Here is the input.
Amino acid sequence: MAIRRSGPRTGSAAHRAICRLVELGGRAKISQLLDVIPVEYHRAHTLENHVLMPLAEFALVLEVGDYLQATPKGKEYAGQHLVTHLPVGQKYVGQIVPGRVPSVPRPLNVAKHRAGAPSRPGSEDWRDIPSLMGGQRIAHKGSSN
Here is the structure.
């Protein structure tokens, strides 16, 4: 069996809008209600379908020109829920992130690093083979030469 309600679900965008409308004196522009309505409802068709239509279906508001006006039923409904004030949107003030502190330099731990691998006799003989560059033979210029 369905539960009959006399207004929108508590905490919904429509509920926030009717409570804000009554807080503002019962008559306000839609733009004045947007600070308590979540951002995803700010588009025209979403606002119409999820906020204004439910309020009109429950006969809580009337549209008078570009204003919304709370009906006596809407004022009574909001009066039941105005005990806890709804959050009002505030301007965001950014915080400056503190700079990073460099870590303390530590001496190199030589014990952690492996020594160079021993090489077999003759493993670096390839360095003695001359190369050709532009038709001239040149010796290999490595770290040992």
Strands lie at 27-29, 61-64, 67-70, 131-133, 136-138.
